[in-house]
Amino acid sequence: MFNIGEVLAQLSEDFPSVTASKIRFYEEKGLVTPQRTPAGYRQFTESHIERLRFVLALQRDHYLPLKVIRDYLDAIDRGEGPENVPPGVSASIAPRMVNQELAAEITGRARKLSADQLRSESGASAELINSLVSFGLISSMGGLFDDHALRVTKACAALAAHGLEPRHLRPFQAAAEREFGLVERAVSPLTSRRDGASQARAAEAAREISELCLSLHSALVQGHIARMDS
């Protein structure tokens, strides 16, 4: 059995932002259920730690709301293969239980990619990648790109096949920044508090608001497309 401090010690190397209050927030949301001593202290097992590692990695690498993660975990625990799973993970994890091996696989997905790796995995040309960088659609740190840059590059490579070049896509970056500004203002009452639980609630609320904004955007665009065919 592990106390919450020992849990943090095991998780902090891979997830430096994890705090005791964030773990308590996950407990509040039903993502992990530690045992309690007669005095009320939380006690975690190895499986609880791997479950937390799994949740933290899905949030970090796939930007999933906690409700989606909880439903996903519940389905795995029932031995089911959930229909809506994170992109790129379904084949490797459903319908297995959350265990050390699985958590290590998911955690390992947080990679840093060189320009050559980004080009190879996205199918984009070096010229396209350079253009995306110059127009501010992707960026690197120390010459390395993250999985977010990979997703942007894949989307832009597919759009390039339709004649849409990076210079045409700058409005998407501007729109994303404006949307983030809206989200940031909406969650500012939570972000003004510095405790870990409030920060976790703010991040969760931001994800939910972002999903709603994306749904609205999609509905508005689809409405215009439908009128083309009417």
UniProtKB/TrEMBL annotation:
InterPro entries: DNA-bd_dom_put_sf (IPR009061), MerR-type_HTH_dom (IPR000551), MerR_fam (IPR047057)
Keyword match Thylakoid: no
SUPFAM superfamilies according to UniProt: Putative DNA-binding domain
Keyword DNA-binding assigned: yes
One function term, GO molecular function aspect: DNA-binding transcription factor activity
Annotated organism of origin: Psychromicrobium lacuslunae
Domain HTH merR-type: 1-75
Matching SMART domains: HTH_MERR (SM00422)
Designated name of the protein: MerR family transcriptional regulator
Keywords of this entry: DNA-binding
CDD domains: HTH_MerR-like
Record-linked PANTHER family: HTH MERR-TYPE DOMAIN-CONTAINING PROTEIN, REDOX-CYCLING DRUG-SENSING TRANSCRIPTIONAL ACTIVATOR SOXR
Name of one Pfam family that matches: MerR_1
Gene3D superfamilies xref list: 1.10.1660.10
